[in-house]
Amino acid sequence: MPVRAPRLCGCGKVVPSGARCPCEAKRDAERKARFDKARPNSSQRGYGRSWEKARKVFLARPENRFCKWPGCDLGHKGGPALATHVDHVIPHKGDPALRDDPRNWQGLCAHHHNSAKQRLERRSTRKDQQ
């Protein structure tokens, strides 16, 4: 099977296919650090002790134990994974009534919450801005 040719990074280094140049990793880390520095902490965003308690109770219920993402097969023996994150079905965008309404919550595994759901929300945000 043919292997892709190495590429030339902007800094001038030759980088093997599928690998990242150390300068790219450093640039990404700096960008993320700038973002995190300006971002309010979880309590300031509305996710304090009361949210943690409600989240724990929600995920402990039998009907909310597994990931609700359609077709999730990341769990044991190809079944749905355990839900570790509470996701808002309708993004609350700072509205406390929508944020704190358990009918607007669903349990998701870390993979689907951090990748697929975030990708969906980014797409819908772009459409709203146009």
UniProtKB/TrEMBL annotation:
Keywords (A to Z) from UniProt: Endonuclease, Hydrolase, Nuclease
Disordered, as annotated region: 101-130
Stored InterPro entries: HNH, HNH_nuc
Pfam family, one: HNH
First and last residue of the signal peptide: none
Hydrolase is among the record's keywords: yes
Residue ranges of every copy of the HNH nuclease domain listed in the record: 53-114
SMART domains per UniProt: HNHc (SM00507)
Biased composition annotated in UniProt, kind: Basic and acidic residues: 118-130
Keyword Transcription regulation set for record: no
MF annotations from Gene Ontology: endonuclease activity; nucleic acid binding; zinc ion binding
Species for this entry: Paracoccus versutus
Name of the featured protein: HNH endonuclease
